[in-house]
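stage 2 :: seqdesign
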């Protein structure tokens, strides 16, 4: 009985490992996530955007240089603050109330008599000595109140009650469910517990380096991961000296400052940088996605990230907004990832993925930033692909090619080949659909022999199918 249990457990572990390996291989063939971008012509606001949030109805709110942008998926609306200042942060509480942190202002969005949201200032609610601040860089709506975080102090508004905590050298605030943290330039990372800012074990490591986010970490989520510019991704409590989580993008993180990060629903990490766009990492630090200007973003400076209720990743950019479907199994390859022209065929040969377009033959180079490379031996319209033992046959407008690894040779000089099919009856024969006919060729030893055209067919043949009894069906572009 014990042996059976151990065997079953071993099989489960092996199965899980196999699934993970399959998922890893699948992710290495990811293209770019489906991406939508929004510029000032679309949303009517300023080019710069600083923060993003969403209410329970799905309405998205954006901290924008001109105010708060509200979008319901179709219509955009700009809501200005009382002083018409730059809005730096937004947050939504459990009652769907939207809280706003701006330059020298704090407030909320309240419905008017028609139910249209308008900005209402809460500045007068603060004591006079707490009103002197500039940019409210973050706003956090929690069950214990709403926290506004300019550099000089942390401000909490809870109904009519206001509390403040003064910074030693400058605050940056971060919130997790049920927890609030600040990084003080002089003291490191602190947590607000019972209205007292208490040091987080190991948090002194970020006292001088820029800490841009704090994420839940570990299998249980009870640990912390500090996202820093100087050290990288730092698990807390930290070692002495601090040891960052090793990632596949350490070099990029060292060169391009990480500005913020969030933990996605599937436990992946999304990071925003000030020069390289956004990255998505798995929990082991593997790079599984990179979205930047070369891949469709309006720019490489990303100020904020937010995952919406549909799982898509919103990015607040220095020059616009973008929404990437990072959890969708559907990804895209185009000229930005090396695939020039519209795909005419996609085919897997001996584990590798190939695509044909009107510009030639391409092969996928799998990896965290997968792309297609052109095979220079084949140019022009390329229509179909076929595996024949070790060979990859390629139907091209100039001729039929045969590839073994990197070596390409001419299998048939017939031009305008458009379809390929290996015969069921004679496994050495391959039928070749043509633009204006049908032919066949046969493998004899180490060479291909052209068997000539099949009489009576003059249409453009687009696809071929053979029945078990050897009858061959050919579909044409115009005559069925």
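stage 2 :: out
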């Amino acid at each position: 009985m014990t042996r059976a249990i151990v065997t079953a457990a071993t099989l489960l572990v092996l199965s899980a490992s196999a699934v993970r390996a399959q998922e890893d291989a699948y992710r290495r063939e990811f293209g770019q996530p489906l991406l939508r971008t929004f510029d000032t012509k679309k949303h009517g606001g300023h080019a710069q955007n600083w923060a993003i949030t969403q209410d329970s109805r799905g309405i998205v709110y954006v901290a924008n240089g001109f105010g708060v942008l509200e979008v319901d998926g179709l219509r955009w609306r700009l809501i200005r603050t009382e002083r018409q200042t730059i809005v730096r942060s937004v947050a939504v509480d459990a009652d769907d109330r939207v809280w706003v942190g701006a330059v020298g202002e704090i407030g909320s969005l309240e419905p008017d008599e028609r139910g249209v949201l308008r900005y209402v200032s809460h500045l007068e609610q603060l004591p006079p000595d707490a009103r002197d601040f500039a940019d409210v860089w973050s706003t956090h709506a929690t069950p214990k109140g709403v926290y506004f975080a300019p550099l000089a102090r942390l401000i909490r508004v809870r109904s009519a009650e206001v509390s403040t905590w003064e910074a030693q050298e400058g605050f940056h605030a971060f919130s997790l469910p049920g927890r609030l943290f600040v990084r003080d330039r002089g003291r490191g990372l602190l947590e607000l517990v019972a209205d007292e800012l208490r040091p987080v074990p190991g948090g002194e490591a970020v006292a001088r380096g820029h800490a841009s986010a704090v994420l839940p970490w570990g299998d249980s989520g009870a640990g912390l991961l500090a996202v820093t510019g100087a050290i990288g991704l730092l698990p807390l409590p930290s070692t002495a000296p601090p040891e960052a989580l090793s990632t596949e993008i350490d070099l990029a993180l060292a060169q391009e400052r990480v500005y913020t990060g969030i933990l996605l629903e599937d436990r992946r990490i999304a990071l925003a940088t000030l020069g390289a766009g956004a990255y998505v990492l798995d929990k082991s630090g593997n790079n599984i996605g990179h979205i930047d200007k070369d891949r469709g973003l309006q720019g490489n400076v990303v100020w904020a990230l937010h995952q919406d209720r549909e799982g898509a990743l919103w990015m607040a950019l220095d020059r616009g907004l973008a929404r990437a479907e990072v959890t969708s199994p559907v990804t895209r390859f185009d000229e930005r990832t090396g695939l020039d022209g519209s795909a005419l065929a996609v085919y897997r040969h001996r584990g590798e993925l190939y695509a044909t377009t009107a510009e030639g033959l391409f092969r996928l180079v799998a990896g965290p930033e997968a792309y297609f490379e052109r095979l220079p031996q084949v140019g022009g319209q390329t229509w179909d692909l076929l595996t024949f033992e070790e060979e990859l046959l390629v139907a091209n407008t100039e001729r039929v090619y045969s590839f073994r690894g990197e070596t390409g040779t001419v299998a048939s000089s017939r031009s305008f080949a458009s379809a390929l099919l290996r015969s069921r009856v004679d496994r050495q024969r391959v039928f070749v659909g043509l633009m204006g006919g049908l032919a066949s060729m046969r493998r004899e030893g180490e060479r291909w022999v052209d068997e000539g055209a099949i009489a009576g067919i003059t249409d453009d043949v687009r696809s071929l199918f053979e029945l078990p009894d050897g009858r061959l069906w050919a579909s044409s572009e115009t005559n069925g």
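stage 3 :: structure notes
- Helices lie at 2-27, 40-43, 250-255.
- The radius of gyration is 30 Å.
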